Amino acid sequence: MVAILLLGASSGLPLNLTLSTLQAWLADAGVDIKTIGIFGLVGLPYTLKFLWAPLLDRYLPPFLGRRRGWIAIFQVALALAIGIMSFSEPAAFPVAMGAIAVLVALLSASQDIVIDAYRVDIVRPQERALASAVTAFGYRGAAVFASSVMLIIASYTGWHLAYGLVAVIMALMVFATVWSPEPVLAAHVPRTLREAVVEPLRDLLQHPGARGLLLLVPLYKVGDAFALSLYSAFMLKGVGFNLVQLGTYGKLNMTISTMVGVTLGGWAYLRWGLYRCLAVFGVAQALTLLLFMVMAHAGPKVWLLTVVTCVDTLAGGMGQAVFVAFIMTLCSTSYSATQYALLSALAVLARVLMQAVAGTVVDAVGWANFFLITFLTCLPGLILLFLLRDRIRSLDAREKASVAASRLSEGAVP
Fold first, then answer.
1. Which of 174, 199, 224 is the last residue of a domain?
2. In whole angstroms, what is the distance from residue 80 CA to residue 170 CA?
3. How far apart are the first and last CA of the chain?
4. Which of 57, 165, 218, 275 would bridge with 337, disulfide CB 3.0–4.6 Å?
């Protein structure tokens, strides 16, 4: 779990360097808003990472094993790329800055592929939700550093030194990778690139009720993602909070509540099992969205901002923990890099599509009705979850049987 925590931090650290933190640097350097908008495309590798994930399942690096070897390679490459980025001049050479930012995003997305696969391969079934919580602590802690603390550092030392510091930290992450245990090599490793592309899909479709389970992946958290896609705009323009109130009682509270939520979700998963957690937390995620309707009518009350953000992201965090455990249950260790990247891309695709239309919906129906619509978008996923309850319970039972057999085998060894 300590290894998963550190690798989660390694995954979260470079994310905002090409997103919100980079936007702040560009704005501070005087780059025009149209160019800053174009830089939003730098994040595309995170959505498209499933396209090259089969390469990381098929080919084994020459050192540190199937997973740690690739992680170390990408960490070294990220440290070098971020170091080069720290010398960039965005106002004078925006194209060069864009090229290196795309490279950093590409390497970061590739690192995410292997770290996700590492977690699937090494975590025992009963610990999956706990591993999700630990990952969230490392990932979000590092992401907060890269998005918030970096701004403070840059205000005192300048952007070049701030990015240079992250490059050094990224290089130090290699020691965590070397120290981490390597998962036992899968019983079957793809022998050809074609097999690495085709077999993961075939393996996923072999699950009983596979099409319904795959459809549940984008639907389960789509309403929550739909609502939170305009969270900042709603609080600032829709309700009337200022930046200090949003940052203190909203964003900071959101981070803490999410971490608490994923921890509680991991704890509940150990006691309730997969289906019950998915159902309870899915309903909780949907109901908390209605609280935003209350805010839309109540106006800028700080106590209400604190309560609504806390309750909503707490429920979302619990749902996230069990949702990640669900995705991990669908993955095979033989193809975990490709399968996890594909399943997570399905989830992200739904969020991206919802974000694309959210502003139009608000403009048409207003904020209060918008959140009612986000609540309604949760219902198809909950209905599908209920219809698949026997399939999900059988998945859970299969995992528990695997754990019991593994423990029996371990106990039989002198």
1. 199
2. 9
3. 26
4. 57
Instruction: Find the CATH number of the domain harbouring 219.
Output: 1.20.1250.20
All residues at 6 or more sequence positions from 148 whose CB lies less than 8 Å from its CB, including other chains: none
Nearest to 54 by CA among 343, 336, 346, 326: 336
- pLDDT reported for residue 414: 41
Specify the number of domains making up the chain: 2
Buried/exposed code over 265-292 (b: 16+ C-beta within 10 A; e: otherwise): bbebbeebbbbbbbbbbbebbbebbebb
Residue 401 lies in a domain: no
Q: 304 and 231 in one domain?
A: yes
* Token digits of residue 26: 């560009």
102 and 11 in a single domain? The answer is yes
- 186 lies in the same domain as 232: no
pLDDT tens-place string over residues 232-241? 667 777 777 7
Range of the domain at 252: 209-395
From the list 362, 244, 250, the residue with the least C-alpha distance to 296 is 362
Q: What is the pTM of this model?
A: 0.71
Q: Are 53 and 188 within one domain?
A: yes
What is the average pLDDT value for the chain, to the nearest integer? 80
pLDDT tens sequence across 113-163: 888 888 877 877 667 767 777 887 788 778 777 766 777 777 787 888 888
Residue 169: CB atoms within 10 Å: 18
DSSP strands (E only) in 24-118 = none
Closest C-alpha among 305, 293, 261 to residue 370 = 293
Amino acid at 346: L
Question: Which residue pairs, CB below 8 angstroms and at least 24 apart, start in 89-95?
Answer: 89/29, 90/25, 90/26, 90/29, 90/31, 91/29, 91/30, 91/31, 94/31, 94/35
67 φ, ψ (degrees, to nearest 5): -100, -50
Shared domain check, 139 and 216: no
**Residue 20 placed within a domain:** yes
More confident residue, 399 or 262: 262
